[in-house]
Amino acid sequence: MALKILLHICCGPCSIYPLGILRQEGHEVYGHFYNPNIHPYLEYKKRLDTVEVYAGQEGLPIMREDHYPLEGFLRQVAFREEDRCRHCYRLRLGKTAQIAKSGCFSAFTTTLLYSRFQKHDLIRIIGEEVAVEYDIPFLYRDFREGWSEGVRISKALGLYRQPYCGCIYSEKERYCRTGRIINGEDRLKA
User: Model pTM greater than 0.90?
Assistant: First the structure.
């Protein structure tokens, strides 16, 4: 049975495989770009621009905020850094479920289920919890099997591929591996 699905999109490259699979299954798919976790703003803008370019190529309608909603993310994760992903997933999936419910969608899902680097089981649990909260089905799919295909296609299309998850904490983990910066240079701890 074909469904009208709202697909939360974290970035352009991660949308390739899930969009393809959902369309192959006959579903009518709409995109939702809501990622207040992405920092700094220039990174957010690169990812948004890439989503809009890819969506335009694919004829995928995209819904998004008209502003950069960083403050909502920061309020959710401040002093909860060790459990930040849980709060971040809930924030993004909750907003997607809310829009799906008010927009008369049949279900919602997320491209976060495509990434090998995300906490897949936690995303599924939160998606199912949010589905109950908003009374709209969460369409679970393990899109990770298409990881290599999505990477190959995104590179062939020349899409911007981000080097970290998006939040300020993941940026630090990616680039500040030593834990100490002295005079603007990374220094190994003795």
Answer: no
